């Protein structure tokens, strides 16, 4: 066990060193490190948070195979954010403020997830297999609802949602997607014009 931890630690340190020093120009090393170190700190923080959350989640469920994605929590988060934009509008102070929007998403996610999955675990008598099956169906259902809401939204709102969650929504968008070589995306809908936005 200790040998594995030592090996993983050495591999992680090697990856960190490679990220910081790869293709580093001697003349501009200080400028490059000023850009790379904050990104590295963000990646380490995200890794710690994801690892800790997975450990706590699997310990509570008492099953190492269960992940939040299998239970449909990813789809639930995207749906809640879509509903937030759909109900309040893009001009709302909550939507335009990234930190406040994240806090609202987090609060809604916590309340809805606790209510839904507490009910599911109670009804299934804490049977993990049943909850996994329901979670798989719930993922499809929530994704379908979210896709339907996006299709009914104003095209300008859909552009913002599609730019932020392009991997999730690009195949379900009702508008035509065009991307130029400058990294800017355009969404065209017949008789409604073209709506550009910068990719995040």
Describe the structure.
With 200 residues, the chain is mainly alpha-helical. 69% of the residues lie in helices and 8% in strands. It has helices spanning 2-21, 29-61, 73-88, 93-96, 98-123, 128-152, 155-164, 166-169, and strands at residues 176-179, 184-189, 193-198. The protein has a three-stranded antiparallel β-sheet, covered by helices on one side. A hairpin with a 3-residue loop joins strand 2 (184-189) and strand 3 (193-198). The longest helix is centred in the first third of the chain and has 33 residues, at 29-61. The chain is flat.
Topology:
Layout: H1 2-21, H2 29-61, H3 73-88, H4 93-96, H5 98-123, H6 128-152, H7 155-164, H8 166-169, E1 176-179, E2 184-189, E3 193-198
Antiparallel strand pairs: 1-2, 2-3
* Binned strand content: 5-15%
> On the 0-100 scale, what is the average pLDDT?
76
Task: Name the structural class.
Answer: mainly alpha
Radius of gyration: 21 Å
Main pleated-sheet profile: 3 strands, antiparallel
From the N-terminal CA to the C-terminal CA, the straight-line distance is 41 Å
Low-confidence stretches: 165-200
Number of helical stretches of at least 4 residues: 8
Q: What is the H-and-E element order?
A: HHHHHHHHEEE
Helix content bin: 55-70%
Number of strands: 3
The gross shape turns out to be flat
Which oligomerization state do the chains in this entry correspond to?
A: single chain
Write out the strand line-up for the largest beta sheet, numbering strands in chain order. 1-2-3
């Amino acid at each position: 066990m200790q040998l594995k931890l030592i090996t993983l630690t050495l591999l992680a340190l090697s990856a960190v060193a490679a990220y910081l020093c790869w293709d580093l120009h001697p003349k501009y090393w200080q400028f490059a490190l000023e850009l790379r170190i904050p990104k590295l700190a963000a990646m380490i923080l995200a890794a710690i948070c994801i690892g800790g959350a997975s450990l706590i989640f699997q310990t509570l469920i008492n099953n190492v195979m269960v992940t939040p994605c299998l239970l449909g929590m990813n789809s639930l988060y995207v749906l809640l954010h879509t509903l937030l934009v759909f109900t309040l509008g893009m001009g709302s102070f909550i939507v335009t403020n990234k930190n406040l929007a994240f806090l609202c998403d987090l609060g809604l996610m916590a309340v809805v997830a606790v209510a839904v999955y507490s009910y599911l675990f109670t009804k299934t008598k804490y049977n993990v297999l049943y909850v996994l099956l329901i979670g798989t169906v719930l993922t499809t259902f929530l994704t379908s609802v979210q896709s339907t809401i996006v299709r009914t939204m104003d095209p300008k709102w859909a552009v913002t949602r599609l730019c932020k969650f392009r991997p999730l929504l690009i195949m379900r968008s009702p508008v035509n997607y065009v991307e130029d070589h400058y990294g800017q995306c355009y969404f065209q809908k017949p008789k409604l014009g073209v709506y550009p936005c910068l990719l995040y």
